[in-house]
Write a structure and sequence with these properties.
Strand order of the largest sheet: 1-2-6-3
Length: about 260
């Protein structure tokens, strides 16, 4: 199976799954990129987290990393653009989006298994250290290497469909090769030398700066949001979201460069 065929299967399955869930007003068409497992991934402990797993720790025989992005619709994104706390709609998307990513990952693995290739997957979230607030498997850094997007000042990955969405990834024995969607060096307006400080100005707890993100300040606001959602009737008590830095931005729904 080549990447063109995989993308075709992946897209058709994702669209059908979204329609079956009756939530086409939440998600847009997902994107997919692949990368050869090579020396680029050896840099992950330096740029992502000291204990970041190499792809071959997940699957010793893997030859490629597959990453995909599920972008939210303008309706979901715009719902979170107002106010200082996460919108109810944004909170409601957390668990269903995790489930969607898991189902898409399982489909990709099953499709590659039919061709005789083993694959391995990590959870879409919650695979991070509670003290350092860094992940042992960073979907964002993997997606950057694969050319699915570029980092913005908001520390989020900007893809051709923007940064407001969620990422999934897996490793596989299939020799899929390098198939990026982005070749530009930067997609963030500020990083490209253009005027934009909107994510820094919008963050309600000033966790963002041009030097990076204060993870603990960001997480403190996320925990406040979690408690606010837990107090609402019919809402889960594990909704940990904020995402004010990806809502209402020039890069929310598309790459501005």
């Amino acid at each position: 199976m080549d990447v063109r065929e995989l993308r075709k299967l992946f897209t058709a399955f994702s669209i059908k799954l979204i329609e079956e869930k009756g939530l086409s007003d939440w998600w847009r068409q997902p994107l997919l990129a692949t990368a050869v497992v090579d020396e680029r991934f050896e840099l992950l402990p330096e740029v992502a987290a000291p204990d970041h797993m190499p792809p071959k720790e997940l699957l010793v025989t893997c030859q490629a990393v597959v990453v995909f992005f599920v972008p939210f619709t303008a309706e979901v994104v715009n719902s979170n653009a107002e106010g200082k706390f996460a919108s109810e709609v944004w909170g409601q998307t957390l668990s269903p989006t995790n489930n969607l990513i898991e189902e898409i990952s399982e489909f990709i693995c099953a499709s590659l298994a039919k061709e005789g290739y083993k694959s391995a997957v990590t959870p879409p979230t919650y695979n991070f250290d509670k003290k350092s607030l860094t992940s042992r498997w960073s979907h964002k850094h993997l997606a950057y290497i694969a050319g699915l997007g570029r980092f913005g000042v908001n520390a989020q990955l900007i893809t051709p469909s923007g940064c407001a969405g969620r990422l999934g990834s897996l490793v596989t024995e299939a020799p899929l090769g390098d198939h990026p969607l982005i070749r530009e060096k930067e997609l963030c307006l500020h990083k490209a030398g253009k005027a934009c400080m909107k994510c820094i100005q919008t963050c309600p707890v000033r966790a963002l700066s041009f030097e990076g993100i204060d993870r603990h300040r960001c997480d403190a606001r996320i925990q406040i949001n979690r408690k606010r959602f837990a107090a609402r009737s019919g809402m889960s008590d594990d909704i940990e979201v904020c995402a004010k830095c990806v809502a209402g931005m020039p890069c929310s729904l598309r790459a501005p460069i």
